[in-house]
Amino acid sequence: MKAIFINGSPRKKWSTYQMLEKAMEGAKEAGAEVEFINLYEYDFKGCKSCFACKLKNAKTNGLCAIKDDLRPVLEKTLNADVIVIGSPVYFYFNTGVSRSFMERLMFPVLTYNPKINEETGELESSLLDRTIPTAMIYTTGAPEEMAAQEFKHALEVNKHFLETIYGYTETLYTYQTYQFTDYSKYDMMEGVEEVRRKQRDEQFPKDLKKAFELGKRLVEKANEFQQ
């Protein structure tokens, strides 16, 4: 049982990393072998629209044909039993780097020629012959109410495609994250630090626990799907 955790944040050791780390601990407790990957350590771009993965009798088998730094990561995720992607929310969406990764991750597995599942009668748009539990973990400085009104609906597209391609997905948010070690150096609205410090001290530990439970639950789900 292999679980891959992808950090789509440029910052190490901060909120996104911490949430992924806890999810990884949960996965380990459930018996998975885990691996943590920082996307910003790799030199790559998003989909180049070469359509090599969509050729008739393509030999890519769900793996992006571009040979660059990201290819070994994509090979690992293609063979993983659990995939968790973490990203801060920038301009109401996940980071450009994480989005580029997701293009390269998902597009080769998405088929333009869906088949009808004989048991369910539903169209299947994935080349995969198994369900891989996935999750998105988002960190944002926005309050929960603002996120619900302004951008959570936009991020539902990630959920849609992960579920369509991998068969099962979950989403976890943590809000009003603490951004700096010294707020006095930055031009911020009055009172922001106090609100976020309170959130960090009171709510963030609860969110870390949710992340731990998420990682554990996804591995348990993977075991169920493989039986």
Q: What does the overall shape look like?
A: globular
CATH topology: Rossmann fold
> What string, H for helix and E for strand, traces the elements in order?
EHEHEEHEEEHHEHH
- CATH A-level architecture: 3-Layer(aba) Sandwich
Q: Provide the domain count.
A: 1
Structure write-up:
This protein is α/β, with parallel strands linked by helices and 227 residues long. 40% of the residues lie in helices and 22% in strands. It has a single domain (2-226), classed as Flavodoxin domain (Rossmann fold, 3-Layer(aba) Sandwich), CATH 3.40.50. Strands 1, 2, 3, 4, 7 and 8 form a six-stranded mixed sheet that branches. A two-stranded antiparallel sheet has the order 5-6. Strand 3 and strand 4 form a beta hairpin. Helix 1 packs across helix 7 (204-226).
Task: Summarize the topology.
Elements: E1 2-7, H1 15-29, E2 33-38, H2 71-78, E3 82-90, E4 93-94, H3 96-106, E5 110-116, E6 123-126, E7 132-139, H4 144-150, H5 152-166, E8 167-174, H6 192-202, H7 204-226
Parallel strand pairs: 1-2, 1-3, 3-7, 7-8
Antiparallel strand pairs: 3-4, 5-6
Helix pairs in contact: 1-7
Features:
single chain, 227 residues, alpha/beta, Rossmann fold, six-stranded mixed β-sheet, two-stranded antiparallel ribbon, 7 helices, 22% strand
Compact overview of the structure:
With 227 residues, the chain is α/β, with parallel strands linked by helices. Helix content is 40%, strand content 22%.
